[in-house]
Design goal:
This protein has 181 residues and is α+β, with helices and mostly antiparallel strands. The protein has a domain of 83 residues: hypothetical protein PF0899 fold. It has 4 helices and 4 strands; from the N terminus they run ααβαβββα. Strands 2-1-3-4 form a 4-stranded mixed beta sheet. α1 crosses α4. The longest helix has 94 residues.
Length: 181
């Protein structure tokens, strides 16, 4: 075996090893490239899932907020309707019952609670009618009705108080009739 054959054998062996190294490098390159693609795909999926979850969370929050706003608005509208019913009732009552008759009825109801009456308070427009019921008549900033006093005791039969009592006692049934609540 001559030098040339040895050199040729060494070169062939070196070339085979070089080809094997190049092949192994290409396989590693493909493997790394595939791994990078898989990581990128996984990262993309993770970001997509997080984004979708965030969108769903925001949509859920917005829907819940809209529902709360809608319920608040419904409560406000129901209150307006109920208030208008009570307003209509008291307006109709004032039209149907004369002031003097109403004051006398309220006066007698309050007097029965107190036994006797020292003084009364009425709206400035009702003073003349109230003087027929009691000697000591004073004015008070009320829309109507009467407040009776005996010493330190008093019975408040003003329209504001009567309206509040009526509302307190009938609100649930009025709401049931109107709204089925």
């Amino acid at each position: 075996m001559g030098i040339e054959e040895m050199a040729s054998g060494i070169l062939n062996e070196a070339e085979k090893r070089a080809q094997a190294i190049i092949q192994k490098g290409r396989e590693e390159e493909r493997s790394v490239e595939e791994e990078i693609k898989n990581k990128a795909k996984l990262e993309k999926e993770t970001i997509k899932n997080k984004t979708n979850e965030e969108i769903m969370r925001l949509e859920t929050r917005e829907i819940a907020s809209a529902r709360v706003t809608m319920k608040k608005q419904m409560v406000i509208e129901k209150k307006k309707i109920i208030d208008s019913i009570y307003d209509s009732f008291f307006s109709a009552m004032e039209k149907e019952i004369a002031k003097e008759e109403l004051l006398e009825t309220l006066f007698e109801a309050g007097k029965s609670k107190l036994g006797s009456v020292d003084r009364v308070y009425v709206n400035p427009n009702d003073v003349s009618a109230a003087k027929k019921l009691c000697k000591d008549v004073r004015t008070k900033n009320i829309s109507g009705g009467i407040v009776l006093e005996k010493g330190k005791e008093s019975v408040d039969l003003s329209m504001e108080t009567l309206r509040g009592l009526l509302r307190q006692r009938t609100l649930k049934s009025v709401s049931n009739v109107l709204f089925g609540d």
